[in-house]
Design brief:
By secondary structure, this protein is mostly beta strands. The chain has helices at residues 14-17, 177-180, and strands at residues 8-10, 23-25, 28-30, 43-45, 48-50, 63-65, 67-70, 89-92, 110-112, 130-132. It is built from two helices and ten strands. A seven-stranded parallel β-sheet has the order 1-3-5-7-8-9-10, with no helix packed on it. A three-stranded parallel β-sheet has the order 2-4-6, with no helix packed on it. The N and C termini lie far apart (59 Å).
């Protein structure tokens, strides 16, 4: 088991050579291909992923502690299987379609300029989360804690105030229709 610290991994295709199992701390991954890898039992602490493809990665008990993703493809990831201890992830310009954050504790998580089509946020704690310029088409919010979450620049979402905790959540006047869909109201 390896324990890389403050290393940069650049332009590597790990789908061919595999990523050595270990605890990666304060490491940077740039332009790396990690799609469909089994990252179960790996640890990523204070790491950054830039321009990487992690689509369909398996993550049984994977530790994601203060990990940032910039311009990454993360399609079909099941973060509910990740290790919950100190789980913290942030996304900027990422493609997360068909992923799941079911029951994740994600207080103050940030999603900036992300595609979040059909992402499952059911039973998650997204209090104080930021959804800045995010496309939430068909994203699932069911029994989700959205208190103080910021959706002012988010779009294509449908969130039912009846089944989610939303006290002090922020919305713009232009995107309020996404809160009324569950009531069968037509807005022109």
């Amino acid at each position: 088991m390896e324990n890389p610290f403050q290393q940069t991994f650049e332009k590597k295709n790990y789908t061919l050579e595999g990523l050595p199992k270990g605890e990666y701390e304060a490491c940077i991954f740039k332009y790396c291909e990690l799609a469909k890898l089994d990252l179960s039992e790996y640890s990523f602490i204070d790491c950054q992923f830039q321009d990487c493809n992690l689509s369909l990665v398996k993550m049984g008990n994977t530790k994601w502690q203060n990990v940032s993703f910039f311009n990454c493809r993360l399609q079909g990831l099941h973060f509910e299987y990740a290790n919950p201890f100190l789980f913290e992830v942030h996304f900027d310009h990422c493609f997360l379609n068909l992923s799941s954050f079911y029951q994740r504790q994600m207080k103050k998580a940030t999603f900036k300029h992300c595609s979040l089509h059909e992402v499952d946020f059911s039973n998650a704690n997204l209090s104080e989360a930021l959804f800045d310029d995010c496309d939430l088409l068909n994203a699932q919010f069911d029994q989700t804690n959205l208190e103080k979450a910021d959706f002012r620049t988010a779009y294509h979402f449908e969130i039912s105030p009846q089944i989610n905790r939303m006290k002090k959540a922020k919305f713009s006047k232009s995107n309020l229709a996404g809160l009324l869909t569950s009531f069968g109201i037509t807005i022109d």
